[in-house]
Write a structure and sequence with these properties.
mainly alpha
Length: about 140
């Protein structure tokens, strides 16, 4: 019984650590979004995303081990719930920011297309080469 409790406590602590690492991942991504250039975001986000996936797999294993030990009541933790809420808030913030950036980029692209149409209509910029035609008079 003591051994079972020790294992459960170790698993609960490991789960807490993993959720804390997930929170750190979202905080890193949020900071990259707030401070970074759009071109740099993708290259910075990818390693964090891979780390997230790895932590999630580890967390799933810990959850399965905890479920195998039973006693769902001891598995609940207010600290874990608070970390999960903060993680979710960060995810929503990042997601909303990326959605806004995507929308802004789309609007800018539409504006460029309209400007190009106007320029082509007034200045015929698509015409790249002018071909001169010479007519000789017959004598």
């Amino acid at each position: 019984m003591v051994n079972r409790m020790a294992i459960m406590n170790a698993l609960l602590q490991q789960r807490m650590d993993l959720y804390t690492q997930l929170l750190e991942c979202t905080e890193l991504q949020k900071n990259i979004y707030l401070n970074g250039e759009q071109e740099e975001m993708l290259s910075s986000f990818l390693p964090i995303s891979y780390r997230w996936d790895s932590i999630r797999r580890e967390l799933d294993d810990v959850q399965q081990q905890l479920q195998a030990l039973g006693d769902a009541e001891t598995q609940r933790s207010d600290d874990v719930i608070q970390i999960m809420k903060r993680t979710l808030e960060n995810i929503h913030y990042i997601q909303n920011g990326i959605d806004q950036t995507t929308q802004d980029t789309s609007e800018n692209l539409q504006s460029v297309k309209q400007q190009r149409k106007v320029m082509n209509a007034y200045y015929n910029l698509k015409q790249q080469d002018q071909i001169s035609l010479y007519f000789d008079e017959k004598k």
